[in-house]
Design brief:
Strand content: 15-25%
Order of helices and strands: HHEHHHHHEEHHHEEHEEHEEHEHEE
Structural class: alpha/beta
Helix content: 40-55%
Number of strands: 12
Strand order of the largest sheet: 7-6-8-9-10-11-12
Shape: elongated
């Protein structure tokens, strides 16, 4: 059976696949998110060519009767037990919860099934996300619905956001007509622009970064830390996920002989202090979840600098966090390399230095 996904995460991904500015909200509602989670939980997934007799079909009640307790039981054995009970009826599902020692508290009431069946399922099927079992009369109570394989693949919890977004683009390309795809792309671009982070560089030009905590940290470093800490800062590069690199000052890069190559291990930002003599380079990592300037990362970044003909003694390193109280700082501050600095966006007037204490000649 596939790795399960939470209803909230399923809903979040549905809103990327079917952005609400372009699609009916029933395609990506909380109920739709629960439907994806429930279908994956019971393995109601198939290809368009699978023999109907070997497919594990599901009913709307499979979704209606799903509970937090059932979703929390992620072993194949527990999921099969729940699936067997749900195939028989609500009384059997209630009895199973009693056996587990917890009350039966489904997330949705049975009267929500019409919305799921008549709106969400119908539209999912139109867009190639869902298969309906052939040969059943409309009045049949037998289960008849299953997610199609390539749609279910989009809900693999191990996918990174970048991999998921690429897979979602490919799925839309395959299943949606050109006009519908265009509406989806426009809606996603509009939503991204509305939440994008605009950074003003020291030369008063701007760069628009993807929404997210890392971008907010970079914005703080460039707009607040650098003008305070450095004599004359020049932003050389800002890198983002997906091999997206913003060039800060191309003329300065050319003058310094620095060539930005995406094959290299790029830091999140590089700022040159051209007011220092000689020019000094600050190599910066923004840590929203992981990726501080550890000893290993410092070595890799120095190797990158050497490829740009930047001497090690002209490099300094800054790990930037949102806050000392943020989980990323609590988890990764201990990993920063000796001889580097840390800065926190919510305390912009301070920084931390971590370096080896050298005893004085008299031993004190």
């Amino acid at each position: 059976m596939r790795e399960p996904i939470s209803p909230d995460e399923a809903e979040r991904r549905l809103q990327v696949i079917f952005p609400r500015a372009a699609f009916d909200s029933v395609l990506s509602s909380p109920l739709a998110g629960m439907a994806v989670a429930a279908f994956i939980h019971v393995d109601a997934i198939c290809s368009s060519s699978d023999d109907p007799d070997i497919v594990e079909w599901a009913r709307p009640s499979t979704v209606m009767w799903m509970s937090s307790e059932a979703l929390s039981r992620t072993s194949d054995a527990d999921r099969l037990v729940w699936r067997t009970a749900a195939a028989k009826g609500s009384k059997q599902v209630e009895d199973l919860h009693t056996h587990w020692g917890v009350p039966f508290q489904p997330k949705y009431k049975d009267n929500s099934r019409e919305t799921l069946r008549d709106e969400t399922f119908r539209k999912w099927r139109e867009h190639g996300a869902l298969r309906m079992r052939p040969g059943l009369p409309t009045s049949s109570s037998k289960p008849r619905w299953a997610l199609l394989n390539d749609f279910a693949d989009l809900f693999n919890p191990s996918l990174t956001d970048e991999d998921f977004e690429q897979a979602a683009d490919e799925w839309r390309e395959k299943h949606l007509d050109p006009g519908t795809r265009l509406r989806a792309i426009h809606a996603l671009d509009t939503e991204t622009a509305a939440h994008a982070v605009t950074v003003t560089l020291p030369n008063n030009t701007t760069r628009t970064l993807e929404p997210g905590r890392s971008s907010k940290i970079i914005k703080g470093v460039i707009e607040t830390w650098a003008p305070t800490r450095l004599v004359q800062p020049v932003v050389l590069t800002i890198s983002e996920p997906g091999d997206k690199v913003h060039i800060g000052d191309e003329r300065t890069l050319r003058a310094l002989g620095i060539n930005i190559d995406l094959a290299n291990v790029l830091p999140d930002a590089v700022i040159a202090d051209i007011g220092a003599d000689p020019v000094h380079f600050w190599i910066i990592e923004a840590v929203a979840s992981d990726g501080p300037v550890s000893e290993e990362r410092r070595r890799a970044l120095l190797a990158w600098a050497a490829q740009q003909n930047i001497k090690a003694e002209r490099c300094s390193f800054l790990t930037a966090f949102l806050s000392r109280n943020h989980a990323a700082a609590k988890k990764r501050l201990k990993d920063i390399a000796s001889g580097t600095w840390a800065w926190f966006a919510d305390e912009p007037g301070h920084e931390l230095a971590w370096y080896k204490v050298v005893p004085t000649s008299d031993g004190h």
